[in-house]
Please model this.
Amino acid sequence: MSAYSALTAAGYRAQVRDRTTVFFTFAFPLLFLVVFGLVFRGKAVEESGFSYLSYTASGVLSWGVANAAVFGIAFTLMQWRADDILRMIRMSPAPLSSVIGSRYVLALGVGLVQSVLFVGVAMLPGFGLVPASRWPLLIPVLVLGITTFLLLGVIIGSIADTPESVAGIANFLILPMAFLSGSFFPLDSMPEWLRNVSRVLPLRYLNDAVSAALTGRGDLSDVGVGCAGLVVFGVLFGAVAVRFFRWTKNS
Model:
């Protein structure tokens, strides 16, 4: 517990000191919300009758939380391995669970603040988001989403050895996934074959569950299916992360 607390405190201090990263972590999703909110203001998706905001707000929130979880842990593991910090931790009594657990708590904290800021801005008169009565379900959905994408970040941080490779791999996976999963554009307006492709992407399940919980688009079964999909991907990513995790560049 002492190792876990020390790693969590050290990670928190490092994040707070990096003001540029902190700023863009929270500002980037809000920028997308403002852009899409202004472009699609007052418009509805013909196929469903829901406003574009009900799609874009949920999708951008899901993307922002997933993006922060992936990049946060991936860059940290890569840098700690390059600086031999992981090797020193390995020589201490601290288990791997303390290393990942400390970053997990920080990721949950970042995701919570992101969500509160994002929903707060989306509810302003210029955007007019009205949360559905089942909005408390957003909390477990986001926890599952952060868990799943943090484990994906562990995989990336374990195989990448430079900041450029972390950014390249993460963007290669997250950006296409965001477009194909409906984070930026409604899936209802996409060809059927693209909607089928999105079913093998974890962000699709996070998007659907967040949308059903936050805006009421869909029913409780959409929340359940989304959570089940995230659990499946979380288990898969966890197994791969354990297989490929490296304390040093060579092992």
